[in-house]
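Please check both lines for our workbook:

___
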Amino acid sequence: MLGNDQEVDDVLQDAYLRVWQGLPGLRDRGAVLAWICRIVRNVAADRIRQHKRSRARRDSSAELAALLEARASELPGPEDRLAWAEQCAAIAAAVSELRPKHRVVLLLREVDDMSYEQIGVALGIPIGTVESRLYRARHQVAAKLRNAAERDNEEAA
């Protein structure tokens, strides 16, 4: 979401500082992970607003594709690797077209492996909202991938 590793490092540094400063006032020690996630989210949102989202969508798509590719298991041959790279690029493109509120929930669940409860606390939304946004995000990505596959099949014919 931030565009590059330097931005991520800056956000994390600011978030660590806010966590350290706010730690004495933390009431529920059991919710510390969600509290930290919320702080990181807020710092990142502030940073994004400062930059007015001037980065191109293809940057975020390329980063997501790289992330998906990095998490993938080793594929045996070059054809399989090319097919995997094309699938990653298609998924990244579909995800980048989602509305931010849907994209964030999808990435927190599928990439960061957060529970619905953790996502709800981190974003300050009810679990039902997490579920509906995740449902919409998954179905929108699936529809975009189906449409892209149909276009590719038509072009190949």
Observations:
- The chain has a mean pLDDT of 80.
- The two ends are 37 Å apart (CA to CA).
